[in-house]
Amino acid sequence: VHGILNIIGWGTLLPIGVIVARYFKQFPIKLDPCWYYFHYSCQVVGYILGTAGWGLGLFLGHESKYYTFHSHRVLGICIFGFTTLQILAFQFKPTQEDEYRKHWNVYHHFLGYALLVMIPVNIYKGIKLLKPDNITWKWTYNGILVLLGVVVLAFEILTWAVFLYKKCCKKTVEESSPRRVEIEEDSKGQTNEGSSPRKTEVEE
């Protein structure tokens, strides 16, 4: 139960929330404000499940008299602390006009990506402790990570495709603009030349 809660909560829902924030906020697909509610929901539900699994892990560690898993325990505490800070950050997020918003963004992104590294490492540490039946758990989580990786790769390709397409369209418009100006100037010049004799005849 401890492993299932942490794999679903911290190992799956939190990364999905990050993917939503990265690819659905503005570019390449803008789903405003739906992306924020989905991102927030993934983080909150993932935090609740992960915290439940973390608390159960502390209980199991306390009840285990003969086994101590120091690094797994320390990483678990750090993950819980960082995820708690991330959840609290939602409550104290400055407005877009606030001068501290840039600093908040840097902090929020840095802590989020740090968690994306720490969580899989600790999950694999936990799976390694499940001797001898750790193969099924290992391949299950491998499949989850591969699936998330494929989704990220697909969105990265889409991001670059959209970026290059917009850049190409912008370049085409910029190249056609001088020609349009030249055509307009030529047409104006021809109009002025054509109207000069008429003016002269009227004056005479």
TrEMBL record:
CDD domains linked to this entry: Cyt_b561_FRRS1_like
PROSITE patterns for the chain: CYTOCHROME_B561
Keywords noted in UniProt: Electron transport, Membrane, Transmembrane, Transmembrane helix, Transport
Residues in Cytochrome b561 domain copies: 1-164
Stretch list, region Disordered: 174-204
Keyword Membrane in record: yes
Comp. bias intervals (Basic and acidic residues): 174-188
Membrane spanning residue stretches: 6-24, 36-60, 72-92, 104-124, 144-165
InterPro entries, per database record: Cyt_b561/ferric_Rdtase_TM
An example Gene Ontology CC term for this record: membrane
Source species, domain of life: Eukaryota
Compartments, as annotated in UniProt: Membrane
Principal location listed in the UniProt entry: membrane
Record has Transmembrane as a keyword: yes
Protein's name according to its UniProt entry: Cytochrome b561 domain-containing protein
Lineage: Eukaryota, Viridiplantae, Streptophyta, Embryophyta, Tracheophyta
